[in-house]
Amino acid sequence: MIEALFNYFNQEYVIRALVDVGSMTLFFVGFFGLLTQRHLLKIFMSISVMEIAIFLFFIGSIFNKTYTAPILGDGHTAFVTMNDPIPHAMILTAIVIGMAVFALGVSFAIEYYKLTGKTDINDINEMREK
Amino acid sequence: MSSIYFVALPLLFGFATPLLQKFGKNGVAYASTGMQVGLFLLALYLMATSFWAVEIISINPPLGISFVLNRASLLFVFLFTLLMMLFSFYYLGLRKTDPFPSENKFFILINMVLASSIGLVLSSDLFNIYVFFEIAGISAYILSAYHKTPKALEAGLKYLLTGMLASVFLVFGIMLVYIHLGTLNLAVVSQTFHTLPFNMKMLISLLLFIGFGFKVEIFPLNFWVTDVYEGSSSLINSLFSAIVVKAYLFVFFHIIYLAMPASDFAPFLLMTGAVSMLAAEIIALKQTNLKRVFAYSSLGQVGLIFAVLSLENSAAVAAGFFIVIAHSVAKMMIFLSITSIEREHKSVDIATLKELNSPFLTVMIVLSMLSLLGIPLLAGFVGKFLALKSFAMSGEFVVLGVIIVASLIESIYYFKITGNLFEKGERRRRLSLSKSQKSVFVTLAVLLVVLGTLPWLFSGYIQDASLSMVDTESYVNLLMGGLK
Questions:
Q1: Does the pLDDT value for residue B441 go beyond 80?
Q2: CB contact, 8 Å: A63 with chain B?
Q3: Are B179 and A124 inside 8 Å of each other by CB?
Q4: Which fold would CATH assign to domain A2-64+82-122?
Q5: From CA B265, how far away is CA B238, in angstroms rounded?
Q6: Where are the domains of chain A?
Q7: What is the pTM assigned to this prediction?
């Protein structure tokens, strides 16, 4: 029973569908948070969730289950049946950048809270147009 | 090995700062300015020797990373190094009386802005463009929140939030390109992009438009810009308006020309630019804060550049480049003048200008506003004239009309400002400027006048630059040269 379930989920098209539907759902969870939440930190988290969803989508749709890791050896002499390493390198870079921007944003939010005591995005209006 | 210096040296400067601090109080400031002068001289030398090159970093294209230095990108590199150098000279005058807090960080940040703007212009690889996009963004967020006042932090937060959103959409677009084409190299993307299905092309264009649209301050996505300009220091605004936005504009149209020339997307870009200009000028009318007025004026000019560049022929691109140069120089002058005024009067309201006692700054502000408006014998006139001509040649008379109306509206608030400048009333004590600050203003003013009165001195170069921007085939050949 469990083995049948495992085999079902291990099929190529099921994995693809899970990746596509799952990451797009996650994207819209983040988007929903961006539109509905008012606390600054929650807004930063929502945007990060959107970002992570896109990274998942990319890695998931480029990954091939039957291919091996991109390392020569163990009988592999050419880069033919191996997964493409470039997306992984790119996503690693993008995760680091996203994390840095997130940390910077949180530090701005903390400084702003220390000065004014505000965390609600609707209250941040020192320069409301007259 | 020359184009890499433009990016590597300013970044290296950050690491060298702890060492340079040992050379006394002025070590970092003088080293930073000296390096920028060096980069400017290098750019000048490359312009004079009609230089073009592909700088390949370790692996050949299409896999490796490479910088392409052709006429178009060299023009922008030259502009950025020139303006950054003048900015530093102005700041050297300012720091004697009123330095920024923890100055060394400030020098690191402005050099990061310079490196990433030049990197954006030179990169020939979508993922590199994304990385420089983020470096420019991060340094700009920190610069706009630099003074840590509530207003500055609010500006930083708004800039950062929109920047984060922009990068989400940009990275989505870039990854769709990779999933479908298996490459990020602009030359290969340029050769294969047309094989994509129509819907996918439109989706990618839209994602790139949203990603860059936030950064180039185009109409539906520019709601945050004026708050950022008002909250940050006007000294920083001069960098945003003159350098950062221009780099984003260049790279956006660079991708558009290479990947989707003459696409169904161009009329949309044209209309967005025109609407952007009209909307910005109308809202600018009722503003009373100088920073806000000129922020809206920047939005208007960016709209004009956007509309001109989306015509996609070399005459229009030449007009666009002329406006880019004229606008960068004029906005640098205006925001540096506002910095001096703000330091003296502690206010940036339009009414402050009534108390301004500085014939020198008055002349400078009026000169740059006349140039922005497009009065003959100044640089702005040449740009606007060529732009209107290319709209007429392309038969876009609606856009032509919109731009003339927008320019008329623009003149109303410029004359309001000029009226305040010359109104008789109680004047404060004389505003003093140091010699280096005055020489910066004079250099910028001379540039405006020379570009306006003797445009044929430069038009040859600018036409070459616009040709190499439009001629994507030679770009691809240049970039793929290592492969063949």
A1: yes
A2: no
A3: no
A4: Helix Hairpins (1.10.287)
A5: 31
A6: 2-64+82-122
A7: 0.92
